Amino acid sequence: MAAATKNRARNVPRPRGAARREALLEAVLQIVAEVGPDAVTHRRVAEVAELPLASTTYWFDSKDHLLTAALELAAQRDTEQLHRTAAAALLAGVDPLDAAVDAIVDSPGNGPLSGRGSLVASFALLLEAARRPALQEISRRWTGAYHETLGQLLQAAGSTRPAQDADLLLGAADGLLIEQLATGTADDLRPRLRRLAEILVAAS
Amino acid sequence: MAAATKNRARNVPRPRGAARREALLEAVLQIVAEVGPDAVTHRRVAEVAELPLASTTYWFDSKDHLLTAALELAAQRDTEQLHRTAAAALLAGVDPLDAAVDAIVDSPGNGPLSGRGSLVASFALLLEAARRPALQEISRRWTGAYHETLGQLLQAAGSTRPAQDADLLLGAADGLLIEQLATGTADDLRPRLRRLAEILVAAS
DNA sequence: GCGCAACCGGTACATCCGTACCAAGTTGTG
DNA sequence: CACAACTTGGTACGGATGTACCGGTTGCGC
Question: Between A49 and which of A23, A70, A80, B22 could a Cys-Cys bridge form, CB atoms 3.0 to 4.6 Å apart?
Fold first, then answer.
C-alpha cells in the first residue's frame, strides 16, 4: 500500500539533523562543566557547536528543553559506561569490590569531557532536578541503575544485604566527590571507598 | 585623646546598614534555594529584600561578592548550629552516635529557610565553589568543622580512627541528601546513617 | 520530475542584565 | 551648629539574552 511506504514518522530527524542535535547537547554539557549552568545560552551553545544561532531553537523548543535533553544524554552515557564496566569485571573474575569502587570512581571520567568537568556538570544537573520535577524521573533512573549494578557486585562479594550496602556506598562516593569538588582537593578516593565496602560486607 | 574618640573604623556598617546587608544575603539564599544561582540578580535580590536596587551595589561591590558573602553566611550559621547541637549532646550524655546522626541530618533545617530549601542552597553554593577558587576556602572551613565535630563524637562512641570514620559518615550523609533532592524522595536517613556509624565504630 | 515537509541560517525585537552615576537624606562628631 | 562621612534611592546605559519570524535550500516519496 502507499501508506506503508511513506510511513516515516513526522518529526523524526534525518541523519544529518540528528548529528546536529547531538552536537548541540555536547556543547551544553561542555559549557555546564566549564562555566556552569548559568552560562548555557543559545548563542554560546551555537558558538561552541559551531552552528548558527537559530539551530538551537529549531532543535529544542526552549532553554529548558535543552537542559533536560542534556541531562538525559549525560545520564544515558554514564549508565551505559557503568554497565559495561560492571559486566566486564564480572566476566573477567576481578574482585567484585574493586570493580564496584572502580565503577563509581571512573565512571564519569570517560567520554569527551574531562573527568572533573563532567563531574561538575553531572552534579549541577542533578541539583537542577531538585527544583524541576520533570528532571527527577531521569535522576531516579540514573541512581537506580547505580543501585542495581552496585548491589550485584556487592552480592558477588558476599554481602547479605546488597541493596542497603549499595545505598551507603554510593552515597559515600557522591558525598566525597562533591566535597572534593567544593574544596579543591584531589586525593584518591579509592582506598577510602574500598575500606568502606569491605566493612559493609564484613558486617553483613 | 581625640583619636580615641573617633576610632570607629571606616566602612564598619552602622546598625541599620548591617540589617540591610543581612536582609540582602537572606534574599540571596532564598533565591538560590527556590530558583537557582542563575536567578540571583541585583534586581531580584532587591525585590525579595524589599530594598531599592542600588542598595545591592552599595553593600556589595559585585555579584561575585554577593554570592561569596551568602555562602559565608550559610556556612557560618550551619557551623554554629552544628557546634550547638554537638555540645548539647555531649553535655547531656546522649548516645554520641545519635548525636552525630542528628547533627548531620538536622543541621540545615533551621533558620528562616525551610529544611529542603536551605539544603538546595547549600549544595548549589558548594558546587559554585568547584568553579570559583575564592569560595573553596570557605568550603574547606565548613567541611573541616564537620570533620572535627563528627570526629569527636565518633571518638566518644569508641571509634579508634575517628578522622577516617567521620570522613565516610559525612560523605555518605551528603551523598544521600543530594540523591534525595535529585530524585524527589524523602525517606528518613537517620536509620541508614545510624547503621553506618555503628558499623564503622565496630570495625575499628 | 515535482511537491511537500524537513531543515537551515540570518535578522529583529522586547526584555532583562550588571553596574555607574548622582542628588538627596541621615548621623555622629568636633 | 556645621561639617564630613555614611547611607539612600532614583535613573541611565551599553550589552547580552530568549525567542519569533521568514525567505531560502535540501532531500525524500510519489
Answer: A23
